[in-house]
Design a protein that fits this description.
Blueprint lengths: L2 E5 L3 H11 L4 E6 L10 E4 L1 E7 L12 H6 L5 E2 L3 E6 L5 E4 L3 H6 L5 H13 L1 H8 L10 H11 L3 H4 L6 H11 L11 H15 L3 E2 L4 H13 L3 E4 L14 E4 L3 H8 L5 H8 L6 E10 L12 E6 L3 H12 L9 E4 L13 E10 L8 H11 L3 H4 E7 L1 H7 L15 H6 L15 E3 L13 H15 L1
């Protein structure tokens, strides 16, 4: 029987394992931690019974994933009334509804521009996903649709934002584009923003009922049903620890793979893996809040995701600062109000509020007060409603998940080269130059998220090579 070892049990490691096991491969997953899931974990914190997502929280790219959809997982996706809100200092807000038309209606003079940019691609997203959820440098299945969608993606977000004239539309787009953790004047920084917004207009920005952990639990159950095995508490640090197998998949950061394989890795690959660039970090603060957050704009209180960053120009400035290693006074903060769609996460009138600030790579300071100040800026009185909080610094992020080097929750800077090629300059980003061995982490296309497509794509490639 063909055998496989998967090192790492994040969503991509589990996706790779399931893809292989479904084809009759005898699969063993090795996980360094005592629990599986990587960044797709949840648990009680601060107040007994209060459920917090550890990292991955909102899933616009997962709910429509070809891999997850093909499994018919028993995961209940729940949607908030408003997908995302971006409050401004004047009390206004850019509001992202699932409907393109409803979003456009709230953007005034920019409504027609929003519909022109997102209407067509959103209607065709399931077709587009067949091309954008894999390596970019390949023959597309739907070249015309991809060309229409892809033309604006090559632009810097700062350039594409000029399509809009209202501060609400510019900030709304800029906040989503900031998910790339890159300076917004760089080419291709529009790509992630366009992809997430388009996916959201098709499928919404859902949460998983009971916490993101339910996605991991469902994947683990599928793998077990297929005969796959998982061993926790097994930290692989050298090639000598790897069991003999026909296929070995690494759901790890490229530098970790280089360290494990050492001289077994071809010199040219080792050089690129060791030079792999990591992006800015996330400084996470979870809150237990009595009652709702007192947002100045009540519509923001209906949004599952909130971006605290001010105007587009302010966001562009803070992203430029963190990339240069400077901690901004008012960092961009992503807020999750998952309990709005999934009330079981709350305990009585105590609600879990998720947040993280964009900070420089490896930031060693304490950004807690900066995060709270951003809440107070748009929700005066927030501090008085906080009954407890838990902080995870960039250092603690990398301990929680070693793939998050320096707090980089994207597993690598998503600059032009790494966004297009992955860990090294090649047309086959999942191959590492050692027969039978592949990388399947979020360092590879299509990148971070709970969608599992990095793992599924890598496993399909491994199966193709095995059949030759």
């Amino acid at each position: 029987m063909t055998t496989a070892v998967v090192v790492g049990s994040g969503p991509n490691g589990l996706a790779a394992a399931i893809t292989l096991a479904a084809r009759g491969v005898d699969v063993t997953v090795l996980e360094a931690k005592d629990e599986i899931g990587g960044g797709v974990r949840s648990g009680e914190g601060i107040v007994p019974g209060l459920i917090h997502d550890h990292c991955a929280a909102i899933h616009p790219m997962a709910v429509g994933s070809a891999f997850l959809s093909g499994l018919d997982l028993p995961v209940e996706w729940r949607l908030p009334e408003i997908d995302c809100a971006h409050p401004l200092d004047d009390g206004g807000a850019g509001l992202l509804w699932r409907s393109v038309e409803d979003t456009a209606a709230g953007l005034g003079a920019d409504g027609s521009r929003w519909k022109a940019l997102f209407g067509g691609p959103s209607a065709r997203f399931d077709t587009l996903a067949q091309d954008i959820m894999g390596p970019l440098l390949r023959v597309p299945k739907h070249p015309i649709a991809l060309a229409r969608f892809g033309a604006p993606t090559v632009l810097p977000a700062s350039a594409l934002s000029r399509l809009f004239r209202t501060p609400q539309a510019r900030a709304l787009f800029g906040g989503v584009a900031a998910h790339t953790f890159q300076p917004l004047h760089r080419p291709l920084t529009s790509a992630i923003g366009l992809g997430i917004i388009t996916a959201g207009h098709r499928h919404g920005w859902p949460v998983a009922a009971g916490g993101s952990q339910s996605i991991t639990d469902a994947l683990a159950a599928v793998l077990a049903d297929l005969g796959g095995k998982v061993q926790t508490g097994v930290r692989v640090t050298s090639a000598a620890q790897l069991p003999a197998a026909d296929i070995t998949m690494f759901d790890l950061a490229p530098t970790a793979i280089a360290e494990i394989l050492g001289d077994r890795l071809p010199r040219r690959v080792a050089k690129q893996f060791n030079r792999f660039r990591y992006g800015p970090g996330a400084f996470k603060v979870d809150f237990a809040v009595q009652g709702p957050v007192p947002w100045r704009n009540p519509q923001v209180g209906k949004a599952g995701t909130v971006h605290l960053g001010g105007s587009f120009d302010e966001i562009a400035g803070t992203e430029r600062d963190i990339h240069a290693g400077r901690m901004p006074q008012r960092p961009f903060v992503l807020v999750g109000q998952q309990y709005l769609a999934d009330p079981q996460r709350s305990v009585g009138d105590i609600n879990p509020i998720y947040s993280y600030a964009h900070v420089p790579q490896g930031y060693t300071g304490d950004a807690t007060e900066s995060v709270i100040a951003q809440f107070e800026r748009f929700a005066p009185g927030f501090r008085d409603r906080v009954v407890g909080m838990a902080v995870r610094t960039t250092t603690e992020m990398s301990v929680y998940n070693p793939n998050y080097v320096g707090g980089d929750i994207c597993t690598g800077a998503k600059d032009i080269r790494q966004l297009v090629f992955g860990p090294r300059t090649t047309l086959q980003p999942y191959r590492i130059g050692v027969p039978g061995m592949y990388v399947c982490s979020a360092a590879t296309p299509p990148g971070p998220g709970a969608h599992g497509m990095c793992g599924a794509n890598a496993a399909q490639l491994a199966l193709q090579h095995l059949a030759r």
